[in-house]
């Protein structure tokens, strides 16, 4: 049995009781560490809480060489842990398909996800979001325009855009870095972005939520990771009031 378990957003206590019990009952536990992480805890604390070893997986361990996970699930109970919800903005559908094709039983225990958390923190309505995008750290000769194109296409349709910020082994992109990259991609007035919402540490006791122009958000101290960005479309009245009250938005 292969059980996909969402750990939720921030620390050890975000997991559901069902998820907790599945880890307690598991013969082997794997933690996927590249699509999201819980910055309010650590793998060592997870091991301590459950009193069992947890094998940390990189992207290639899941996408290219998942055999150890699948072999363990053929004969025993395997818990596959992911930050957030295991099937939201991840590629783990592929692992579930592989397991099914091998005759391995699977199930999903859902977790709170950044995708729904941003709606509560910003007040932006979930049904008004268009396609989401990610900003990767630029590399030598690689500075993709895709995130800006997605945002502009959503704005034309009057839809909000959720912008995931890159996570690397030792670097977590900040709201300011993300905005800086988008502003470098903008080539003229027609591409200008007038409003951003930055969110830090959703799920923690002290998330930071701030709305404003790129200039205004430069001066906001968002604090430690993880961070995420939203580019809102035209605001509905309630959305505007919510951002004013909870994100320091000052309409022009
Ligand atoms: C690729 S998504 C994976 C989403 C995850 N499966 C979920 O359901 O929450 C990860 C990105 O979402 C954002 N993110 C995830 N958790 C966050 C949190 N607690 N606070 C702020 N941003 C977060 C970061 O930008 C991070 O790079």
Annotate the secondary structure layout.
Blueprint (H helix, E strand, L loop, with lengths): L1 E5 L10 H9 L2 E5 L10 H8 L3 E4 L1 H5 L3 H9 L2 E5 L10 H9 L4 E4 L4 H9 L10 E3 L10 H11 L4 E5 L9 H11 L10 E5 L7 E5 L1 H5 L8 E5 L5 H11 L5
Parallel strand pairs: 1-4, 1-5, 2-3, 2-4, 6-7
Antiparallel strand pairs: 7-10, 8-9, 8-10
Bound molecules: S-adenosylmethionine (SAM).
- Write down the CATH topology of the largest domain: Methyltransferase, Cobalt-precorrin-4 Transmethylase, Domain 2
| Structural class estimated from helices and strands | alpha/beta
Helix content: 25-40%
The profile of the biggest β sheet is: 5 strands, parallel
What's the number of extended β-strand segments?
10
The proportion of residues in beta strands is 15-25%
Which class of the largest domain in CATH terms?
Answer: Alpha Beta
Question: How many distinct domains?
Answer: 2
CATH architecture of the largest domain: 2-Layer Sandwich
C-alpha geometry: elongated
State the gist of this model:
With 252 residues, this protein is α/β, with parallel strands linked by helices. The chain has helices at 17-25, 43-50, 59-63, 67-75, 93-101, 114-122, 146-156, 175-185, 214-218, 237-247; strands spanning 2-6, 28-32, 54-57, 78-82, 106-109, 133-135, 161-165, 196-200, 208-212, 227-231. The chain has two domains: 2-109, Cobalt-precorrin-4 Transmethylase, domain 1 (3-Layer(aba) Sandwich), CATH 3.40.1010.10; 114-247, Methyltransferase, Cobalt-precorrin-4 Transmethylase, Domain 2.
């Amino acid at each position: 049995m292969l059980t996909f378990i969402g750990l939720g957003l921030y620390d050890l206590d975000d997991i559901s009781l069902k998820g907790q019990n599945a880890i307690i009952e598991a013969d082997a536990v794997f933690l996927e560490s590249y699509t999201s992480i819980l910055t309010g805890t650590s793998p060592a604390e997870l091991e301590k809480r459950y009193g069992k070893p947890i094998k940390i997986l990189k992207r290639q361990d899941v996408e290219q060489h998942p055999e150890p996970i699948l072999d363990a699930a053929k004969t025993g109970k395997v818990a596959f842990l992911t930050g957030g919800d295991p099937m939201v903005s991840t590629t783990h559908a592929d692992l579930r398909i592989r397991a099914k094709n091998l005759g391995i039983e699977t199930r999903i225990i859902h977790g709170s996800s950044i995708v729904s958390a941003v709606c509560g923190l910003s007040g932006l309505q979930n049904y008004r979001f268009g396609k989401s995008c990610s900003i990767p750290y630029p590399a030598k000769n690689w500075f993709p325009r895709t995130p800006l194109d997605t945002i502009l296409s959503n704005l034309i349709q009057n839809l909000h855009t959720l912008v995931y910020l890159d996570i690397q082994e030792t670097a977590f992109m900040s709201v300011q870095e993300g905005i800086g990259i988008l502003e470098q991609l903008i080539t003229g007035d027609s591409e200008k972005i007038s409003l951003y919402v930055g969110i830090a540490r959703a799920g923690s006791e002290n998330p930071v939520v701030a709305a404003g122009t790129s200039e205004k958000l430069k001066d906001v101290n968002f604090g430690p990771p993880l961070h995420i960005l939203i580019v809102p479309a035209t605001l509905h009245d309630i959305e505007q009031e919510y951002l004013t009250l909870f994100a320091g938005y000052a309409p022009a």
